Amino acid sequence: MQFELNENNALLKTSIREFLEKETPLAKSRPMMEETQEGFSKELYAELGDLGYLGLTLSESEGGGAAGVIGLAVVLEEMGRVAFPGPFLDLVLAEETLCRVKDQQASQFLQETVSGQKNVLLARSEALDDLERSSLQTRFDQDMIRGTKLPVSYGASADVLLVTTAEGLALVPRPEEGWKATSLPVLDHAQRFVEISLDSPGRLLTDKQRADTILKEVDQLGALGASALMLGLMEGSLELTLDYLKERKAFGRTIGSFQVLQHRAADMWIRMESSRSAVYRAAWALENSLEEASLLVASAKAYCGDSARFVCGETIQLFGGVGYTWEYDPHIYYKRVKTLEQLYGSTRNQLEAALQSQGI
Amino acid sequence: MDFQFSEEQQQFRMELRAWLKENLERPWIEELRDPKNDEKKLFDIRRSWQAKLHESGYLGIHWPKEWGGRGLTVVENAIFAAEAIHAPPIASRVGINLLGPALIHHATEEQRKRFIPKMLSGEEVWCQGFSEPDAGSDLAALRTRAEPDGDDFRLEGQKVWTTFAPWSDWIFVLARTDPDDRYGGITFFLVSLHQEGIEVRPIRQITGESEFGEVFFSGALAKREHMVGALGEGWKIAMTVLAYERGSMSLAHLARFDHYLKDLVEGVRENGSLQRADVREKIARLLVEKEVLRANGYRTLATLASGQAPGPEASLEKIFWSEYSRRLADGALDLLGLQAHLLVHSPHARPHMDWAQEALYSRAVTIYAGSSEIQRNIISKRILKLPSS
Ligand SMILES: Cc1cc2nc3c(=O)[nH]c(=O)nc-3n(C[C@H](O)[C@H](O)[C@H](O)COP(=O)(O)OP(=O)(O)OC[C@H]3O[C@@H](n4cnc5c(N)ncnc54)[C@H](O)[C@@H]3O)c2cc1C
């Protein structure tokens, strides 16, 4: 039994934190979210590539950092803490898909994603809810991929899409004239969703059965990654709250001295720390391919979803009026977790997955 | 990061399992259901079970060997608690779980020699004399006095909510030795209940049983040689006791909760509602939270196993398991309906689970060992550093 991070991961935590605190405090990252079309800084992602963060989970022979699932959780937690914008987790998931496909072109795209030169992203969903559908409408036929994918996270910035079709997983390079992408603005203004209509040449990488197996593994990593992000978002949001509680005055005293607010802050902390236990236990189980991983990952995602909504919502409330302004930061956290609750396996689906993992 | 039991720990578990199979004749719930067993009889069963455990070296598992322990760690102790959930609770639970660590940390060698072996064997059963009618959450407001009498002390005052007082032989008491010093005027005494000047009165609880009681002192003897720590050090020692009371128990509770949730799932399967969406969502959240509780528990264990004493973080575990136990019991009384309200000896009661008792008891766990409100005070002051009013 040991809860501490090992030396490598502890080092990873310090270095990513330093990088993010310097490069993307919210004062610097909000303009990226709010004033750029892509919603993130391509230069910064290239730098993440140079520093090795983009290949974090891959093996050394694939040019990766072999940091494992726990290492990924560490980095995502830190990214959540500063509400780091852009498709970091999506890129990791695309890489994890590529490296499971034995294919030369896939390997090449993998290398280019790891180094930050190209964005390869998954395009899977065909509906805005997270309900299970019996079949995919997108088809692969005579080297052409036809169909509509939505929402595709940061899809407009993709150089290559990994598209799920009824026939299997297909690789679709960005056409010369760009994607036929319609932007889907959502509640989280930092997020960039698009709807992409495909009528493009591409290659089938694997058949449907193999694709399903691969994506099931990748989904676990996605759910775990989203949980770690939400843990970090809770941390960032609670830090904001505690600073504010210690500084804001009402009725001649700091509001943090009101017991009712102290107890609400304590509840936020309880949720956050319990999420931390859940995230790292799940990461550990996934890293070691333990049987209980499916229960633990589903539990972490569902619990972090409920908790992050609670924590980040409380932050808005405890800030009072300024919490409802565009200028202050609480809404950045709140909006991000609202979206994350739905993505990478919605809370409802994770609850069901938890039951099924126990034969219930 | 590692959330696994070592091979030796697994081995310990398997041996214990075999031992329990051999030695546990009747699950505790059967004893509770047996109309021949009154409260006194039930307590005798707990005493003899404790003696049996002691003979086989299953008490004080994480204590040093020189104090009659097994010399293992809190992890094996937690494994024991988890495996033994169908066994009778031991008689001197308060002694072993709370006083034991305090004696190991703060007592003299003579005191440990005098008290620990008989505490382990169950020959001497202990109760905790902290709370008073006007000193509960505000424990330092306690007024029971220890007046000097020659070398020794005489106690005057009253304790209340004293669990097992009606069955105990000894009580550890926080008493005031200086009326003007709120924290520094409290001293920690070990006091025999079998003497003049002590009266114990049982109090009936909402379950109908009298597990706790009141203890009245009028001139009872508290010997100086049975004072733990120095004069005025009682508060510090009490804090050790409370930290052990709050933390590190998660795994034992978890083993119970695993069993309870399994019974709840069986119940909804039997009553045909398992496929209802509302039922599934409720059960799923109980399942998920139970795993979070387990993760918290492993995390605390890892901290304790590395040799650290439980800190204010213990409040997290206390709040989580106690409030979870309410949600779980409430969930069962809701999803199983009146079947879960049936008392253990009623016809149609669920054979392996006493939900009625559990539902009532779950209202106590958020009060004792520092109420949920007090735990939140601790978190907001000591961890979040929020200002006092
Ligand atoms: C089943 C059971 C077994 C027990 N066994 C023992 C035992 O063996 N030995 C022993 O010494 N004691 C025992 N106790 C007593 C227990 O420790 C006290 O009941 C507890 O500390 C609360 O004290 P109180 O009952 O005086 O309530 P009070 O302190 O009067 O509290 C009343 C309410 O006010 C709240 N409150 C109090 N102060 C604050 C504050 N500062 N901020 C916010 N809210 C506050 C409390 O949370 C509670 O909700 C037991 C209690 C129970 C229920």
3D structure, described in words:
- The complex is a heterodimer of chains A (360) and B (389).
- By secondary structure, chain A is an alpha+beta fold.
- Chain A folds into three domains: 7-114, Acyl-CoA dehydrogenase/oxidase, N-terminal domain (Butyryl-Coa Dehydrogenase, subunit A, domain 1, Orthogonal Bundle); 120-206, Butyryl-CoA Dehydrogenase, subunit A, domain 2 (Beta Barrel), CATH 2.40.110; 211-357, Up-down Bundle (Butyryl-CoA Dehydrogenase, subunit A, domain 3).
- Helices cover 53% and strands 14% of the residues of chain A.
- In chain A, the strands form three sheets. Chain A has a four-stranded mixed beta sheet. Chain A has a four-stranded antiparallel beta sheet with strand order 2-3-7-6, with no helix packed on it.
- In chain A, helix 4 (68-81) runs antiparallel to helix 8.
- The longest helix of chain A has 40 residues, at 208-247.
- Chain A is globular.
- Chain B is α+β, with helices and mostly antiparallel strands.
- Chain B folds into three domains: 7-91, no CATH class; 126-233, Butyryl-CoA Dehydrogenase, subunit A, domain 2 (Beta Barrel); 247-383, Butyryl-CoA Dehydrogenase, subunit A, domain 3, CATH 1.20.140.
- Helix content of chain B is 47%, strand content 14%.
- Chain B is built from twelve helices and eight strands.
- Chain B has helices spanning 7-23, 28-33, 39-55, 74-83, 93-106, 109-121, 234-246, 250-270, 277-305, 314-335, 355-361, 372-383; strands at residues 126-129, 145-149, 152-163, 170-176, 186-192, 198-203, 212-222, 227-228.
- In chain B, strand 6 (198-203) and strand 7 form a beta hairpin.
- In chain B, helix 1 (7-23) runs parallel beside helix 4 (74-83) and helix 8 packs parallel to helix 10 (314-335).
- Chain B is globular, with a radius of gyration of 21 Å.
- The model of chain B has no long low-confidence stretch (mean pLDDT 93).
- At the A-B interface, helix 7, strand 10, helix 8, helix 9 and helix 11 of A face helix 9, helix 10 and helix 12 of B.
- The structure holds flavin-adenine dinucleotide.
- Flavin-adenine dinucleotide (FAD) binds at residues 127-131, 136-137, 161-163, 212, 364, 367-368, 371, 373-374, 377 of chain B.
